């Protein structure tokens, strides 16, 4: 018996010792080769992949700089020495990353119809030397807007090639991996706009390693999932996460339980039926080796509260803090506060902070917490008052996510693809770009002064806060958005008008909801000369963009302080719009008077408004700040008379009036309100 055991053990040992390693052929262009990477022999993606896979695998780097997939391209891969070496290698696994150089205007415009056939012919070549080889086809890594041909064709042709690679993988049953998505939020990993550095190559190596081994690190959930969270009511619940490839995942909550098997990319999702409003659910997610349990889960309404410092402004600093903070205990309000690791104050950040920012680690780890005086005190005042009124009116749990960043411009919150296609000019050399407000650029330069990286990231950079602060919320359902921002874009009204439309488009695409409610705060009163024009521009945007609404805050401004402290009224006015437009409380007056039209008769102007019931002055005095002008557009202070739901406006100095405006001062003491005592907006007739 002992002799038999020794023989069997020896046979097993000999198999392990003499088993041939699995050969992995990395086929590609200069990105695979490791062009521009210092010490590429150690840090190209195939070299890093070898270290990840270990001695059971043999990884070959067969990248050729400038190579095209197209056989009629300017440098066909199949005609290169690296192709012949790859054939001799006869890989058991062939990872193909070709197509980037096919975006050259010599290639794709002329021979796009041959790309699919050439790709399949390349695969057939590798099958000839190893009939059992497995193919892993990669979606192409990103090409930056900094590329010289980006707008002239590269951007669009890259997208077309991506779609073709996906079609090929599906048609031949090959495994498709994504070199694009994990690197897209990191343009700083591409020093020349095309070739990833060692950090970028590490991402590629990890992506291939996971596809080969199926090891994605086990069951993982986004940080937005935690105890005390609020799930959106009245809609199917989509729960998503990651686990190892082909792993069984079970999800249970209340009386529902669903099981799903992860894809080869480690992704999984289940769709659950809507849950009844409640406060003490338990969500369990489990695989064979790991279980995650979230307790005290509520079902109600979830809102994202975002923008810059006036949304970030803490409850304990507002005018009504002394009376409201002690009363902030409410278990039906749950807070997810995404606070910054480094505030954008007038300081130079440390080198370690700058490195973290380059890795999108701007926000500190967070979790859902119950609303209490201690927690609410350092939460957004506007968000808190918005949520408090909603909770009182709806009598359901309210979840508030706040990710506001002081000083941040609109462009920082928009996704990269949207800006690349719809406003690429704002991406170029952003710290020297006039589309970006001067103060924003100078503050960013001060914060990153210690950096030697020409592509150093900063929260004010276009796209950065989308990538650091919105992407982590992916697939977490929300009801709508409340937004308080604009101070950092008021220098260029025309650019902001475009950006604000792109912002709403970007977020609605992200949450796959083309009518996602988006309620925003108009800039307040402050001695900055462009602000009357900006406030009127915001008023017009409300009428131009579907399912948006604007809160007037100019009556609560501060002449010298960009951070007025009267935040309760602002938050509650936001909730009036939500109650009226989103929740159907049509008896609620959602706004003060909003300019609708003007009719000129003889020497008079008759101005009509929406939400005009009970027009009056807020202080019982005559109406102030109405002005009137003739064709020369020279405005004079006007006399007024309230005529039902209209205002009669005139001046002895203007015989043939053509224009009317109201509250057209940076800091205004305008006093027109309606019966709900809500203020009228700044306006200028066309």
What does this molecule look like?
- Among the domains are: 2-213, 3-Layer(aba) Sandwich (Rossmann fold), CATH 3.40.50; 594-684, no CATH class.
- Helices cover 30% and strands 22% of the residues.
- It contains 20 helices and 28 strands.
- The protein is globular.
- Strands 6, 8, 9, 11, 12, 13, 14, 15, 16, 17 and 18 form an eleven-stranded mixed sheet that branches.
- With 686 residues, it is α/β, with parallel strands linked by helices.
Summary?
With 686 residues, the protein is of the alpha/beta class. Helices cover 30% and strands 22% of the residues.
Count all strands and give the number: 28
Tally of helical segments: 20
Largest sheet, described in full?
11 strands, mixed
Q: Quick one: overall form? A: globular
The parts where pLDDT drops under 50 for at least 5 residues are: 1-17
Mean pLDDT: 96
- The CATH architecture name of the domain at 2-213 reads 3-Layer(aba) Sandwich
Top CATH class of the domain at 2-213: Alpha Beta
Report strand %.
15-25%
Straight-line distance between termini: 101 Å
Helix fraction, binned, reads 25-40%
| Relevant CATH superfamily of the domain at 2-213 | SGNH hydrolase
Class by SSE composition: alpha/beta
Q: If you consult CATH, what is the topology of the domain at 2-213?
A: Rossmann fold
Radius of gyration: 30 Å
């Amino acid at each position: 018996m002992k002799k038999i055991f020794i023989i069997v053990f020896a046979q097993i040992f000999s198999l392990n010792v003499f088993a041939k390693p699995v050969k992995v052929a990395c086929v590609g262009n200069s990105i695979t080769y490791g062009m521009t990477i210092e010490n590429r022999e150690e840090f190209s993606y195939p070299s890093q992949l070898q270290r990840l896979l270990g001695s059971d695998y043999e990884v070959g780097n067969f990248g050729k700089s400038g190579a095209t997939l197209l056989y009629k391209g300017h440098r066909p891969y199949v005609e290169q020495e690296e192709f012949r070496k790859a054939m001799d290698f006869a890989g058991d696994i062939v990872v193909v990353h070709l197509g980037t150089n096919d975006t050259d205007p010599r290639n794709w415009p002329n021979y796009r119809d041959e790309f699919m056939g050439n790709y399949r012919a390349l695969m057939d070549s590798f099958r000839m030397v190893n009939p059992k080889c497995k193919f892993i086809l990669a979606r192409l890594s990103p090409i930056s807007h900094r590329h010289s041909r980006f707008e002239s064709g590269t951007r669009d042709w890259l997208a077309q090639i991506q779609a073709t690679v996906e079609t090929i993988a599906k048609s031949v049953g090959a495994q498709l991996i994504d070199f694009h998505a994990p690197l897209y939020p990191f343009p700083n990993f591409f020093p020349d706009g095309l070739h990833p550095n060692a950090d970028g190559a590490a991402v590629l190596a990890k992506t291939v390693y996971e596809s080969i081994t199926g090891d994605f690190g086990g069951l993982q959930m986004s940080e937005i999932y935690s105890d005390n969270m609020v799930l959106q009511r009245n809609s199917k619940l989509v729960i998503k996460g990651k686990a190892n490839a082909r792993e069984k995942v079970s999800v249970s909550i209340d009386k529902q339980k669903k099981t799903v098997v992860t894809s080869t990319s480690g992704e999984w999702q289940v769709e659950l039926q809507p849950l009844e409003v409640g406060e003490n659910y338990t969500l369990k997610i489990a695989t064979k080796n790991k279980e995650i349990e979230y307790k005290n889960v509520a079902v109600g309404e979830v809102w994202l509260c975002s923008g810059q410092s006036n949304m970030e402004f803490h409850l304990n600093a507002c005018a009504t803090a002394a009376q409201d903070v002690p009363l902030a205990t409410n278990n039906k309000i749950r807070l997810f506060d995404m606070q910054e690791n480094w505030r954008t104050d007038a300081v130079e950040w440390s080198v370690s902070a700058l490195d973290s920012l380059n890795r999108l680690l701007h926000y500190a780890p967070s979790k859902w917490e119950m609303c209490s005086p201690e927690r609410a005190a350092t939460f957004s005042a506007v968000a808190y008052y918005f949520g408090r009124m909603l909770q009182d009116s709806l009598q359901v749990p309210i979840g508030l996510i706040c990710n506001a960043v002081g000083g941040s411009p609109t462009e920082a919150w928009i996704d990269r693809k949207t800006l690349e296609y719809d406003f690429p000019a704002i991406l170029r050399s952003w710290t020297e770009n006039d589309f970006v407000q001067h103060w924003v650029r100078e503050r960013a330069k001060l914060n990153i002064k210690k950096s030697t990286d020409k592509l150093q990231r900063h929260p004010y950079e276009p796209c950065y806060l989308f990538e650091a602060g919105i992407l982590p919320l992916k697939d977490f359902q929300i009801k709508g958005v409340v937004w308080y921002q604009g101070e950092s874009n008021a220098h260029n009204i025309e650019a902001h008008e475009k950006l604000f439309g792109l912002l709403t488009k970007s977020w609605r695409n992200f949450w796959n909801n083309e009518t996602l409610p988006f309620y925003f705060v108009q800039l307040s009163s402050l001695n900055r000369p462009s602000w009357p024009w900006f406030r009127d521009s915001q008023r017009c945007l409300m009428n131009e963009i579907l399912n948006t609404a604007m809160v007037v805050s100019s009556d609560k401004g501060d002449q010298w302080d960009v951070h007025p402290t009267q935040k309760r009224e602002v938050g509650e006015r936001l909730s009036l719009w939500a109650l009226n437009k989103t929740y159907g409380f049509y008896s609620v007056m959602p706004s003060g008077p909003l300019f609708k039209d003007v009719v000129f008769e003889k020497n008079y102007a008759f101005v009509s408004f929406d939400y005009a019931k009970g027009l009056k002055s807020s202080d019982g005095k005559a109406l102030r700040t109405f002005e009137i002008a003739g064709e020369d557009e020279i405005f004079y202070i006007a006399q007024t008379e309230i005529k039902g739901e209209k205002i009669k406006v005139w001046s002895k100095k203007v015989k043939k009036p053509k224009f009317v405006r109201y509250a057209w001062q940076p800091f205004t003491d305008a006093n027109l309100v309606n019966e709900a005592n809500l203020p009228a907006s700044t306006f200028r007739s066309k």
